[in-house]
Structure formats: C-alpha cells, structure tokens
Amino acid sequence: MNIQTTPKSQIDAEVLIVGTGFSGLGLAVILEREGTRDYLMLERGHDVGGTWRDNHYPGAGCDVFSHLYSYSFRPNPYWSSTYSKQPEILKYLQETAEDEGIYPKVRFNTTVTRAEWIEAEDLWQVETTTGTYRARALVSATGHLSDLSLPDIEGLDSFTGKMMHSSQWDHDYDYSGKRVGIIGTGASSIQITPEIAPDVSHLTVFQRTAPYIVPRRDAPYSEAQKGMFERFPEMLQDFRKELFWGNESRFPQRLQIPAFLAQIEEMSRGHLEAQVTDPALRDKLTPPYSVGCKRILISNDYYPALQRENVTLETTGIARIDETGVTLTDGSHVELDMLILATGFEATELPIAEVIHGKVGRLSDQWEDGGQAYACTSVHGYPNFFMMLGPNTGLGAGSMIYMVETQIEYIRGALQYLAESGKVIEPDAEAQEAYVKSIHDRAERTVWIAGGCQSWYLHPRSGKLTAIWPDYMSQFRKENGTFATEGYMVRDATVSA
Ligand code: NA7
Q1: 462-483: per-residue pLDDT in tens?
Q2: Are residue 81 and residue 112 in the same domain, yes or no?
Q3: Using a 6 Å cutoff on CB, does residue 223 contact ligand 1?
Q4: Which DSSP letter does residue 341 get?
Q5: Do both 478 and 374 map to the same domain?
Q6: Cβ-based burial of 245 (10 A; exposed 0-12, middle 13-18, buried ≥19)
Q7: Residue 305 CA to ligand 1 centre (angstroms)
C-alpha cells in the first residue's frame, strides 16, 4: 500500500535522495527492489559513484577488503584481489546502477542549492541548479569525502605551476620529468607517491604528521577462487562474515586496551624497521601519537618510494607558497613544476548542512559545535529528513558499507512508516540529546580522543568526536539498524489527499 498524504500533484516524488555514491545508490537499490516507494535522486556529478567517481588519481584504491567493501545484497564473486583499485569499484557501482534500474531515477548535473521544509505543506522543497523538486521526505547521502579541503597556507593561489587536489586529478597533465611536490601524508598521498615517483625528476613529500603504516597483505584471487565464490554463494557469505569479525576484533585497539595496542604497535614498528634502514629517516617517519588516533594506513610501497634517490621527505614546516614553489619555515625554498594537495576532505563540517533549512533554521547553524543526530540519522527540527553517513558514522577500522547498509534498513523502515501512516516525524529534542550524550560518553575512552593527535575525526571548534562511531560496528547495527517511532515526535500530516 502506498498512502500518499500530500496530494501527488504537489510533489515530484515521495522521497528525494541527494547523492549517488555508495550510500545513496544502496538505498535506491533497496527501494527499487521493494517497488513501493516513489523516489528521485539528485546528483551534482555526471555519473554515479561519489568519491569513487571523483578520486581517480594514480594508484587510487581502497584499504578495506574488496569482499567487505561491497553490498551484501549484491555480492561480487569476481573481485580481482584482496583490495580493489578505483576503476574496479567504480565499475561495480555503475553496474549496480545499470542492473538495478537506477539510472533513469537520477537527475545528473544537478546541485542542490537550498532544501527547505515547508511546514504548511509538510514537504521538502529542494532548489537545484536544474529546477525545483518537492517531496515528502528528504535523504541526504552526500558522504564524508565529497568536498575537498584546501590547506590554509599563505600564497596558495599564487603558484603558477600545475596545482591539483588529489580528488581532482588532471590526467592530461604529464608529470614525467617534472619537479613535483605533494602536501599531506594521508591515505591518498601514500597511494600517489609510489605511483608517480619513478616518472618525476624529483618528488618532495611535505609531511606535517607521520602516519602509522602496516603491511598491505594484498593478493589476486585465482580463477578457481572466483569460481568457487560464484558457484557457492554461501561460501562467499561465510567469507564476508570472517572478514567482518576480523575487523570487529580490532576495535579494542581503539579503546587502547594494552594487549591489543601492543599488537598493532609492534606490527607498524616492525614494518617501519623492516622497510627503512636509515635511523634518521625512521625517526622522521615515527608518529608522535598513539596508534589508531589517525587512520592506520596500509602500504608496502610507500616507505620504499621515500628512499628513492629522487624523493625527499620534507618535515620542516611550510611557511608559504609563491609563484615557483614552497618556502619552508627555515627559509629554504623548494622549486616545483607541480604541486599536489593531498590534504583531505571537509569531513567534520559537512557542506550539505549549509543548504538544509528546517523548522529551526539552517542545519549548519545547529551544528556549530559539530554534527549531532538521533540514531546518527535524523535531526530534531528537520521533519521527515534522514542523513546517511552523517554525524558519528565513520569508522577507524572496518567497512563503511556495513554502516551504510545499517542506515539503509533504518531509513527504509522510516519511509515505509511515513507512507503507510501518513504521519510526519522528527526526533524529540530530549531523545536526541540523550542519544548524542551516550555517543560522547563512549568516545571519551577511545584513542581518537585520548590518543594525542589532531585529526579530522574531531570537530575543530568543540574538540568533540563527531565523525567516528565510538563503538563496535555490530553495536551500531544493534542500536541504529531498525526504525521505531520511540524517540520521535509523531503527528498527522496537515495536508491530506
Ligand atoms: P587525510 O587523511 O585527511 O590526510 C590529509 C593530509 O594532509 C594529512 O597528512 C594532513 O596532515 C595533511 N595536511 C592537511 N592540511 C595541511 C596543511 N595545511 N599543511 C600540511 N599538511 C596538511 O586525507 P586523504 O585524502 O589522504 O584521505 C582521506 C580519507 O580517504 C582517508 O581517511 C580514508 O578514509 C580514505 P596532518 O596529519 O593533519 O598533520
């Protein structure tokens, strides 16, 4: 049954989903398969894929197991190796959209400029660069890693060579034989560095904080293995479970439980010692904080790349950038033809919050001290609004697809409730506050708060852990995997058919 409270003529769809990355696309697949929800998707890009469409820099790949970094409802027996590269993941998402009939539901090249809850009509009115859309419910699925973060360095705009952020790689630019600099040593940089180092004349890696790195145990799946996964889907599901619980068992590291901490410290120290012989370089590469406080990276070829003749690891701070390169705080100057900004994303202050206006105003104003949401998904003052990968949904270890699928089921249930009951819902302020408090109480005991580092997991003004879920992934599903009206204010919609 599909009870439509708002007259059909006044809305373009029952549900509007903003974003077609892993989260939005996954929700669409489930709604499409269910066949009862009328939905439309708004996408600012030219294709589906989100961060996997945008991040195609040399060496781009995922550091989560391929068989976990894919939908449980669309298992792929054919992943080529333990960890997948960007083209294979993007292809998986494009094939998902194609096979599941999602493409016709997407309005591409459509950027949301303002989404407003119209209380008198009980609907969301969404202004975009290609027109206005109206819907009963709004789902934001714009991700953590979609809007790039530029470093706040004096003179950045004055550089006259080639400059690009890692997420906006220009493949027409030929870096071979060039003097290249890369700012940042996070997940993106450590993938780019070994890939481009052999071709450039010189590469300077500007490191502000050394990351922890552990071995990347990658291997191709044989044709026989793929055949087994294809023939025996239950075997693939068992393998996924094994990988999941393997990840889950690493969470005690994040609680800094000594035995677990020692294990990962030993692994990363051993990797550094095995791969870097020069003690001075090793010192520079030794992180000054507890392991896990920033994302633990996996790579076998980053340390070797840093030891090439034509690569310099620069740990002196950057003072400013000028027309020809980078000036360091000791006054020395590094001449460059190309500057890569591998400086991450706007993950703590999600830009989509700036255009969402509910009963209580702009969402970004409500989130001055960091994002907060009931069940990590809905927000008081924003009726019939759901956010995927919003506050406290990120992970330090594990697959974001598990978190995404948990939210898909929650939102699917909420949308079904809205359609069948004709109600309008929003979380109760007290319920939301209590929920958020329980998250921050749990966060206190984690390495992300207590580990002595500055990371994008923490909100820059409040210092609160707003990007990461501070508990086991299975606990996230237990708490947030099934929609219930408990904790919500529920009322009849004012406009009826
Ligand atoms: P990250 O992990 O946010 O890394 C950004 C890097 O850029 C990190 O090393 C930062 O150093 C460095 N950075 C940022 N601003 C500056 C300035 N102003 N000066 C010098 N260095 C700077 O982004 P990635 O793209 O690598 O990875 C993003 C996520 O993608 C990752 O977590 C995975 O989930 C996949 P810092 O450590 O802050 O000192």
Answers
A1: 999 999 999 999 999 999 999 9
A2: yes
A3: no
A4: E
A5: yes
A6: exposed
A7: 19
